[in-house]
Structures are given as C-alpha cells and as structure tokens.
Design goal:
Blueprint lengths: L1 H20 L3 E7 L4 E6 L10 E5 L8 E4 L3 E6 L3 E10 L20 E12 L3 E6 L4 E6 L5 E4 L2 E5 L4 E5 L1 H10 L6 H5 L5 H11 L19 E19 L10 E18 L7 E5 L2 E11 L2 E21 L4 E14 L3 E4 L6 E2 L4 E11 L3 E11 L8 E15 L2
Antiparallel strand pairs: 1-2, 1-5, 2-3, 3-4, 5-6, 6-7, 7-8, 8-9, 9-10, 11-12, 13-14, 13-23, 14-15, 14-16, 15-17, 16-17, 17-18, 17-19, 18-21, 19-20, 21-22, 22-23
Keywords: Signal
Protein name: Outer membrane protein beta-barrel domain-containing protein
Length: about 400
C-alpha cells in the first residue's frame, strides 16, 4: 500500500513540477533598435546557441511571443543566463573528434560570423562561450569593449600519426593577467573548458563587479554538500513461501508495517553544468525492523538492522530563488548487522545476508539548507538465493534534511 501511495505522490509531484518548469522567468531582451524590454522569458537551458526565445509581457499572460535570433541583440534571464550578440571569429572545424577528421593545419581557419555568445563570467573582463554540436570557442571582452577569440585548435603531426594542440589561448591569458599575479605555470594548467577558465577568471580578474543585476541566485556556488538526514522508516516485510516448506504454509506471512527511527549522512556532489541541477550522492545510513508472527504451529521472528548505502543520481528543478524540488533514483547497498530470521521449522535460524536493492525519492530544499524527502526503498529477499525464498522487504521513509556545509 505504501509503495502505491508513494508512486502516486511521486507522479503527482513530477507532473506539477513539469508544469512549473514551463513557467517563464523574469528577464529582459534588447531589440535591434537597442531598446531594453522587460519581460518573462522561457528558460530552455540552451546547450547550443539559441535560435529563438519565447517571451511574455507578464507571467499571467496566456500566449507567448517568439523572437528570432535576428530580432534581438541580447537577452538575460535574471540570476540564470545571459546571451550577447557579437560579430566574432569562428572556425567550424570539428574539435575533439576522430583523428580522421583533423588536418595538419596548426592555425584555425577563422571567419567572421554574427552569433549569440553565452556569458560565463563578468568582471573587468568578460568571458563568453559559443557552443555548437562538434566545436566550441571561448571569447574575452576587454576593458575597451573588444571581443577576441581565445585561440585553440587540434591538428596532426608526424604524417598524421599524432595529435597536437595549439593552446595559444594560454599565452593570451598570460599576457593579460600577468599583472594580476598569474604565472605561466598557472595558465599552462588551464584546459579549454568552462570550469577551468571560469575559476581562472575568478582568481585573477581583480574586479568587484558581479555577473548579474539580480543578486538572488537559484543555484549555490558550492559543488559539494554534506547533509544530515534523520527521519522515520516504515518497514514492511512479507514472507511468501519457501519451496522446502511450502506444503506446510498455504498463505504468505505478513509481518506488518513497523515504524522506526533512521539516520543518514549524505555526501552530495553537483556537476558544474546546467546550473548544478544534476548531482550524485551517497548516504551511509542506519535502519532496523523487528516483528514476530505466528502461523498455525509455526512461529517466525525477524530481527533486521543494517547499515545501508543509497547511491544514485539527483535532478533539481528550481521553483523560485529559495525553493527547489528534486528527484532521486539509485541503488541500495545493504549490510545487515546481527540480523536473523528465527523460526521453529529448522533447528537453526536463517541468516539475513547482504543484498542489492533500489530506491526512488522526491524532496525539496529551502534556502539550500533545510528540506524534507520522501523515499521508497525496495530490498527484495533478505536471504541468499539458495534458500529459494520468495520474500519482500521494503521501506517508506520520511527524512528531514539539514545541510551542515
């Protein structure tokens, strides 16, 4: 019953969240006449250059308007993302591809194009990226307002047997930030990726400017969190049959639902892309379950306690700058502690052993500090396969969350 209620709750929350994710967020765009228009923009988490945006004049407006790329100079969703149109150097040769697609030409074949650049960092200098399916380039806007490409190219040497990299972007950044304390060794360690370059700009750009006009952010700048998760666990165990004794037991034995305290400490790691919406976690936890029943002339007593480790992936969706909703899915590694299944069928009790299960969950966080989570764990059989049992153990958990850092 609990599993059905949980799945119903999970489905309802997912549908309501899917609806909320289709709402529009406050922002603005600049049209071709350089007018700034405040509006609400649908956030599509663009991985590639946007070709259009959907806007509303107000959040309550039913119909949205489509603006094509050639109708705007820039747009921003406050606290989330900003794109700026510029004429820059672009080389459309594929990067990070099979060696057969590379050439021996060391210098990029740049051509001027008008594109929408995504802003990654804004200070005294501004860092942009232009993403396409098979290549990407980074750009730097200097204090005079000029936007220059940070040069990178892979090419072949030794008659096409080896790949080398033209990392001229490292020399460019050294020339600019040497006065701010950057050494040549610092820039030689840089990779041509978002996270590496953003960290470099944050360290060596001495400006006090901030990225967005709106200070409230929907994501934390912390990539690692430790969460304390005490809660209650409602365990349910059904022993359906054992082939060796099935002739003596006509009906499954339901040990009933038992409510117990549980506690876990979760390590959560956020990926840097997509506003840290995707995360992985592991949560060492403790739980227990104890119940006794009598069926005819047989008595059964299950005493089960374990250290278990939910491991999985998590997706966050941000309802507003303070409230977020998330979904879990993953496996459960279970290690029983002094756990037995006692009965008067055999002389010795059956030993409860380690098993692999799975879990599903949904939760919310407030201010990225407090929260709550509903979770369903399915452990299946508690015994080794050679006992030929058909038994099921599952729990429904309500956990409270406090992030200590």
């Amino acid at each position: 019953m609990y599993s059905k209620l949980f799945l119903l709750l999970l489905s309802s929350l997912f549908l309501s969240n899917a609806y909320s994710q289709n709402t529009f967020q406050r922002g603005h765009y600049v049209n071709q006449n350089s007018d700034t228009i405040q509006c609400f923009i649908k956030n599509l988490d663009w991985r590639l250059e946007p070709q259009k945006i959907l806007i509303k004049a107000s959040e309550s407006q039913n119909d949205s308007k489509v603006l094509l790329k050639n109708e705007i100079k820039s747009f921003e969703i406050y606290g989330e993302v900003k794109y700026v149109k510029a004429v820059v150097d672009v080389d459309r040769a594929p990067q990070n591809v099979n060696i057969d697609l590379l050439t021996e030409k060391r210098s990029p074949d740049f051509k001027k194009e008008e594109v929408l650049l995504k802003e990654l960092y804004s200070g005294e200098y501004v860092l942009y990226v232009f993403n396409q399916n098979d290549f990407h380039f980074f750009y730097l806007k200097n204090k005079e307002g000029d936007i220059d490409v940070l040069v990178f190219k892979e090419y072949l040497v030794n008659d096409g047997l080896n790949i080398k990299k033209n990392n001229y972007y490292q020399q460019q950044l050294y020339n600019i930030f040497e006065k701010n304390g950057a050494t040549y060794n610092n820039v030689k360690e840089l990779s041509y990726e978002d996270s590496s370059l953003i960290k470099f700009f944050q360290k060596y750009d001495k400006s006090n400017k901030v990225k967005s006009e709106v200070p409230d952010k929907m994501t934390s700048n912390k990539s690692i969190r430790v969460n304390i998760k005490p809660g209650i666990s409602i365990g349910d165990y059904v022993y359906e049959k054992n082939t060796k004794t099935n002739s003596l037991m006509d009906e499954p034995i339901d040990f009933g639902s038992k409510t117990n305290f549980r506690i876990g400490v979760e390590l959560e790691i956020a990926f840097s892309f997509n506003h840290q919406k995707w995360r992985i976690y592991i949560e060492p936890s403790y739980r227990k379950y104890h119940s006794s029943v009598t069926s005819g002339k047989y008595t059964f007593d299950v005493n089960y306690q374990s250290l278990y480790f939910p491991i999985g992936g998590r997706y966050y969706s941000y309802i507003n700058p303070k409230l977020s909703l998330y979904y879990n899915v993953g496996v459960v590694l279970d290690q029983p502690i002094n756990s037995t299944f006692e009965h008067n069928i055999y002389d010795n009790p059956s030993e409860i052993t380690s098993k692999l299960g799975y879990h599903l969950g949904v939760g919310f966080k407030y201010n990225d500090r407090w929260g709550s989570e509903f979770r369903y764990n399915y452990q299946g059989s508690l015994f080794r396969s050679h006992y030929n049992n058909i038994d099921k153990f599952k729990t429904f958990e309500l956990n409270f969350i406090y992030s200590i850092f």
